[in-house]
Every structure is written in C-alpha cells, then in structure tokens.
Amino acid sequence: MPLMSFPRRMLFSAGALSLLALALQSPHFAQAQAQVQAQVQPQTSILGFTPSAAKREAEIENKFKAIPSPDEERRQHHIFTAEPHVAGSPRNNELARYIADQWRQEGLEDVVIRRYDVYGSNPKSTSLEMTAPVHYRAILRELPVPGDPDSKNKSISSAWSGMSASGEVTAPLVYAHSGNPEDYELLRKQGIDVKGKVVLVRYSNPYSYRGFKALTAERAGAAAILIYSDPAEDGFKKGKVVPNGPWGPEYHIQRGAITYDFMVPGDPLTPGWASVPGAKRIPVEDAISIPKIMALPLSWHDAKPLLANMDGPLAPDSWQGGLPIKYRLGGNRVRVHVKIVMDNSTQPYYVVEGRIRGAELPDEWIVLGNHRDAWVFGGVDPSSGTASMMELTRALGKLAKSGMRPRRTLVVCSWDGEEVGLAGSTEWGEQFADELRQKAVAYINVDEATSGSNFHGQAVASLAPMLVETAHSLRDPSGKTLYEAWKESSARDRREAKQPEEVADSNVTDSNLADTRIGSGSDHTVFLNFVGIPVLGLGFEGSYGVYHSAYDDFFWMNHFGDPGYRYHTLMSQLWGVLALRLSNADLLPFDFASYAANIRQFVNELSKNKNMWGQPPSAVRPGEARQPPPLDLKPALDAIADFETAGQRLDASIARALASGAIDSKLAATINHGTMQVERNWLNPDGIPGRPWFKHILYGARFTYAHLELPGLTEAVEKQDWPTAQQQAEILRQALANNTKLVNQLNSTLNGAMRAEK
C-alpha cells in the first residue's frame, strides 16, 4: 500500500508540544548536546582493519558521530510516546508506516513492511473483587499524577496480562511470594494446597519472568494468578516515587504477557516456521506456549487490602514486603472473585525492514533491530530504543547520501509483538533463517536504550573484545570515555549486588567487562538460539520503577531517565559505530580464543554444580569417600584447549595479515565466510532436550528468562539424567572439534596465502 507521512498534529498532543518547546529552549539542553558530540581521540588501530583502512574508518566514524542530535532524539522519542501503542493496535500500525516513510526520506533502500499473522491477545474486560471477609473492588487502573499530562490519557488501558486465559472463579486467596517452585513447596509444608485457589505473587524477589510464574501456578493447579508490584522491589522502599522520583507510585501496574515463550517463542500456532499470511497452523489446544490459566497484574494499592485481610501462618521474613502489614500465607479467610474476558485470536503484526546496501559486499549483512510495540507509552521500553534507532538511521542515511556507503549491507528492522512473545523478530528470523545463515555477520539488539547512565553491554564471547575496544572511541556524557564509565559502573554494581561467585570479583578487566551470559526476553533470541548468529545487546540502565506501566512515558524520561537525551544520543553513536566496524572490517573481528576461554569457564562452573555428584554429601557415611561424578567432562575440556590454541593461532595470523596492509579480496572472503560459520556450528539441529526450537548448545535461557550456559548439558545435570548429560557432553565435544578443525583450516589458508605473497 502507499505509505504517506503523518501530519505533526497526529503525533503530538498540544500540552506535550508546549513542554517540548520549553525544554528545547533551555541553555542546559544546548550545553548537553555540545558535550555529547565532543569527540575522543580517534583509534589508530581497530580490530579487523588494516592500518590504512583503520584510518579511513576513524574518519567515517567521526563524521557519523557528529550527526545524532539530542534535539532529534527528543523529538523522535516524543512521537513514539505520544499515545499508547500495544502490539496490533491501530496506533502501533500507524507508527510502522511512519517509520517506513521516514526511512525512505532518510535514504534507506528496499523499505518494506512485512505482515505476520500472530495469535495474540487483547482484553475485553477484567475485574477483581474481594468477597470475604470484607468487600473490596479493585480499581485496576493508574491514577494521573501532577505534572504529567500523559497520565491523564483516556486511551490508557486497565490492568491486563497478555495471553491470559478467559474465565471466572470465586476462590480462596493464597500468598505465594514470588511464585517460584520452591515457594509452593514451602506452602505445601505449611499444609496449604493451592489447587483451585487464586494465588497472589510478587513480581520480583527473586526475579522470574511472569510467564514462568504463571506456568508454575498452572502446574500447581491454581485457578488464577494475581501478580503485583511490591514497593520493596520498585516502589517507595527504593526511593522517591513518580512524580518526585523514578520509582513506581502506589497505582503503577506492571503489565506484560505470560506467554510460555521459553518453550517456543513467536507465534504459538507456527512453531519453527514463519506465520506469513496463509501459513499452516497447529490447533490452539496443541500450542505449548499458550497458557491455560487466568492472570492479572495489580498495583500495590489493589494488593494491599487483600494482603491485610489474610489469615494463615505468618509468612517467612524473606517473604515480607514493603507494605506496613504482616504478610500471611492465607488460604481460607480471604476469598476473591476474578473474571477475565480476553479476545485471544490471530491478528496481523507488522515488521518494518530497511537497508543500506553494501558497496562491495552486499550479500553480507549486519542486522540491527529494536521493537516498536509498548504496553502503554513505552518511555523506556521500547521507545527510548526506537528514538535512538531513528537517529541511527538518519545518520547512516546521511553518510550514504554523501557517498560513504558501508562495505557490507546494513539491515534495520522495527519489530512488532515483542512484548507478546518475541513475535515479530521470531517470525522474521524463521522466514529468512536459511538466508541469514548464509549472509548474516551479526545481530545488534537495542531494546531499552536508556533508563539511566550505567552501560550494560552483552555479546557472545567472540565479539566481546570488539565491543570493549569500541567503547574507547566514544565519549560518555560524564566526560569520561564510555570505556572508563563502563568499567567504573560495572565494578560498583558488582560490589553492591554481591553477585554469584563467577562475577563476584569487582576487579573488572577487559576480559570480563562485557556480559557474555545471554538469556532471553528480547529480540536477539531467534538470531542466537535458532539461526546461530552472533549477537550484541546494548543498553544504559538506572533506577527504573515504572516498567510496563502508564508512568513509563515522556515525562518520566525527561525528569528521571535521560534529561537532555544525552544517553539516547550516545546509544545512537555506539550502535552505529559497532555496525560500521562490522560492515567495513577487512577481516571480521571475531576472537575465538576469547570464546574458548569463556566456554571453559562455563564447563568449570558446571563441574562445581552440586548435582554433578551421584549422591548428596549427606548420603556419604563417615569414613567413606564420596563417589566421583558420573559425568566425565575432561574430553570437553581437552577439546576446549584445542579450540583455544586454534583461536590463538588464527588471531596471530590475522594480526600479521592486517599489519601487512593489503589483503586479497578472495582470500578475505574465504576467511570471513569461514569465521561466520563458527557460530552456526554451535547449533544442534535437534535442539535442547525438551525444547527443540532452542538449538544453541552454548547459550540458552531458563524458564525465568535468566541466562543458562550449556543449556542441554546443564539441564540434564540438574536432573541427574546421566545418559542425556553424557550425550550432551559429546555434542559439545564434537562441536568444539568441528570448530577447531575449521579454524585450523582458515589459519592454514591464511598463512599459505601470506607465504605465497612473500
């Protein structure tokens, strides 16, 4: 269909325009803009580049970094936060057309909007009442706050959970803490059975994805699950609340989907293939990612009367929350009536795709993406990322128009339906999986560009050195380089968080600065876990207590998240520089020695897992030796050593070849295509046992979305399923051997060509 630009009046409210105009006139805003655009000294040596190419690349990067503007970041951010735009809504589809129109004007090529028909959900009506011992009807809405005109928007939805089942029940209420399996075990020990009852759980403490909470409740036989935001996690116990601070106020509601996308992401009815119009679909009753339980999110305002009237045993100290009441387990006294009517049906979602075709290697792709759909306004999630993406494309388009076209093709995508089950990116990735495996160099994901100033960079280990190196070339708004600011905030966060043993050391080094433990929960999932493409994930983080609520909006960003839009601008710069380096590199900057060291760390951690032993320590009699583990990981460790040696040799050969100053294009193509194959070789076509869609043998995610290294092997060890564990260990060893052979062949080819030139 023809795509037309939208009049500005369709994209801004009058009150918000006034706020925007006043802010843009501030001298502090202009000062911040100038500070962000200050350049650091250009790097004279860049991974993957010959000396002369590195010099040209530095010149290109400096021109690129001067283009993104805080003014434009703010303008675009306001466009995307002007109205609620949940997946499948008319507003979200309007924004898809707006993006496509902008990209065409900016000079992107092959701009297309792709349709995927996805089984999704929208609420018809939701209600919650306490019927005993007193009556209380939950308001299930967020009240406006002073100073924030968007909080009065009539289009803000009431509370609802994506993919909830429809139904109606009146039943006793049980408090189940965070809703994890161990919480239900404690309830059972207290004589409390949740079967047929309604469970009330907290969003965090410890964190777990709401879909896992729903599945756990469903398996326990609960009739419905209520998930509320306790002030101990994201409210007044953390600090000042909106409108006076960044934390969640009394009425904030964390919406979200409960899709079981940790089993199969994307459209539940097309698991493993694209949901293009007319695609075959499985019956709804056969879709394992569709929940069968009713779910509803609550503010603490609505949860407090329920908790205050509960009977039963006093909850453990670790279950007590931030409200000024004694939390009890319940089960008898409080009865609630829950009624949820959903429209769960197949509906069109739209992915916007645009390209800047490569001047020399158009069939090698760097893919960049951010999702567009939001639960309400999406001030942080995802509109901060979308604003940064729009400045990224404007800057890249301006370079291309001036003749600075990248060597490889840049593919930029605005995903739809991420919040429902990673839908748009998954369907696009499934549709083009074969082509991506042939052509894609890497995928760079930005979900939330910024909720604060602390950078969090994720990368598969082969790209971690490149990410760290790139951070030296950018200026943080603090005045330090991004690298310096990143190291300082990482060390501070690790000390304060008292993280587990593997990251407890606060002595941050280049080798552990990037986060190489990649779980799920965002659009990188299909690229890494299904297609086998190396991924990077970028974001700036801070105090953020309004996640998925109506208060995550333009007001919040301008007062707490990123006043001045300096970190939005830095994100556009970082995202673009990484893309340009991958696009323009002579030899792709993969570091397989680093990858090997990371895999060794994963295996060593697994060897210390308490489930590795045939019997627990308590079963060992005095004077008896504990039986050795039934799984021998030495073959895998030996294979890692071989892979590391091969990686070190290739690193050295590549460094010599680049230093020579000239690399034959056919030789470069051979080496680059070979190194691109390494990530594909980590895929097991049969997938993780029990979850065949997830095929990566190094990276996976737990049902909580948390990272899970060596997923098939680790899950087998934790179950003490030794035949499966042995099989998975052999799959790992064989993949390492295959990649060692490949890397050695590439090294031999490169050295042979270099000797021939001499």
Please describe what this structure looks like.
- The radius of gyration is 26 Å and the shape is globular.
- The longest helix has 36 residues, at 722-757.
- The chain starts with 13 loop residues before the first helix and ends with a helix.
- The protein contains 24 helices and 16 strands.
- It has three domains: 8-118 and 347-584, 3-Layer(aba) Sandwich (Aminopeptidase); 120-345, Glucose Oxidase, domain 1, CATH 3.50.30; 592-616 and 628-757, Up-down Bundle (Transcription Elongation Factor S-II, Chain A), CATH 1.20.930.
- Strands 1, 2, 4, 5, 6, 8, 9, 10, 11, 12, 13 and 14 form a twelve-stranded mixed β-sheet that branches. A two-stranded parallel sheet has the order 3-7. The protein has a two-stranded antiparallel ribbon with strand order 15-16.
- With 758 residues, it is α/β, with parallel strands linked by helices.
Q: How would you summarize this macromolecular structure in one to three sentences?
A:
This protein has 758 residues and is an alpha/beta fold. The chain is 39% helix and 17% strand.
Secondary structure elements and their pairing?
Elements: H1 14-24, H2 27-36, H3 51-65, H4 70-80, H5 90-106, E1 109-132, E2 136-137, E3 161-162, E4 167-175, H6 181-189, E5 198-202, H7 210-219, E6 224-228, H8 231-234, E7 256-257, E8 294-298, H9 300-308, E9 330-356, E10 361-371, H10 383-401, E11 408-415, H11 418-421, H12 423-431, H13 433-439, E12 440-450, E13 454-459, H14 464-471, H15 482-497, H16 510-513, H17 525-531, E14 535-541, H18 554-561, H19 566-584, H20 592-607, H21 634-659, H22 665-680, E15 699-701, E16 707-709, H23 711-718, H24 722-757
Parallel strand pairs: 3-7, 4-5, 5-6, 6-8, 10-11, 10-12, 12-14
Antiparallel strand pairs: 1-2, 1-9, 4-9, 9-11, 13-14, 15-16
